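seq:
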Amino acid sequence: GRVLGSKELGLPVSSEGTYYVAPPDPISSLGVTTLGTYRRTPDRIQYRKDLKSADPDGGLDNTIKHEFIHRVQNRSGYSKLADKRFRAYVPEDNAWRKLQKSTGKRITTPINESMAYGYAHKLRGGELDDPLVRKDLRHFLKGYVPKGDDVDKYVEDMIKTLPSMVNDFEKYLREQEELNSSRIVEIENELD
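struct:
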């Protein structure tokens, strides 16, 4: 659910002249710079306005879509298979593919986060190679790029891969729908 900041609650500013962002756990697990989060246990999405955003809604639309994509990735089982499926459709010369091969490590988090950023933007009518997606990916992915490597090369390779990632995700969801039509009814009943 939505987490209100102190300004939205009508609370005073802190002694440093800043607003308190969100209450601490267990009410909220959102930190100062975290606009949204999805927790598997309990199955919960939290989000709040970006008070620095030029958007009057504080980017809520994007944050909600982003976090719901994570929920779908998890609930559908895709997040567990993302790394393996990525290897099947990404060219060998892709920086992320090379990183997988050289380290033998899974890159599930960069895959799932990149897809969530890109897919949320697509759902709002944007393009997958939009400068806003590129900016979000650069900010997020730099923590996964090996020291000394060119972050922009990794971002560009992920941007090039995004259409294939989105197509694979949609294909996976269609396959799951066909295989597990009774599970979809169960989930729909849970939501009622």
